[in-house]
Amino acid sequence: MAIEIGKPAPDFELEASNGERVKLSDYSGKNVVLYFYPKDMTPGCTTQACDFRDRHQHFADVNAVILGVSPDPLSRHEKFIEKHGLPFLLLADEDHHAAETYGVWKLKKNFGKEYMGIERSTFIIDQEGRLVKEWRKVKVKDHVEEALEYIKGNLIQS
Predict the structure, then answer these.
(1) Is 56 helix (H, G, I), strand (E, B) or coil?
(2) What DSSP character marks residue 103?
């Protein structure tokens, strides 16, 4: 299934760090920041998660929920949340089904080795469940602020 701006965001169901199974459709009526990241506890992913943490209330103020998704298991998510005081849910996509659906499970190269992994990406989904913005190959610096400004400038906030 290809995803497309202006179309309904593909729904999925994953285990969440709160111990529940979460569906994207559970957040109907909210703006959703769905961000895919490669791995808990790594430098770039930690910076990104902490940037979202530090702006969490700003997102809440514009009726937005933050959901982080990686292939890490819940046990690793729990350690990541505890270590960095993350106030939003992390979802375990161990079989990378959601990542594949959103087209972010990619062939990567690092130090001459090839492997499959997450391409850091963020998707904004509006209150009606439509995909309205995407960033792929995200550079962490200033990205969270850019996502927040997009919501403030383009989406209903009630």
Answers:
(1) helix
(2) T
CATH 3.40.30.10 correct for 26-154: yes
Give the pLDDT confidence of 91-123 residue by residue, as tens digits.
999 999 999 999 999 999 888 899 999 999 999
From 85, 73, 89, select the one nearest 40 (Cα to Cα).
Answer: 73
Which positions are catalytic?
45
Distances (CA, A) of 120 to 38, 54, 62, 142, 152: 6, 19, 23, 14, 22
**What is the tens place of the pLDDT at every residue in 133-147?**
999 999 999 999 999
Q: How far is CA 143 from CA 2, 93, 135, 147, in A?
A: 24, 22, 9, 6
Residue in 40, 24, 139, 83 with CA at minimum distance from that of residue 147: 139
Pair 72, 110: CB distance under 8 Å = no
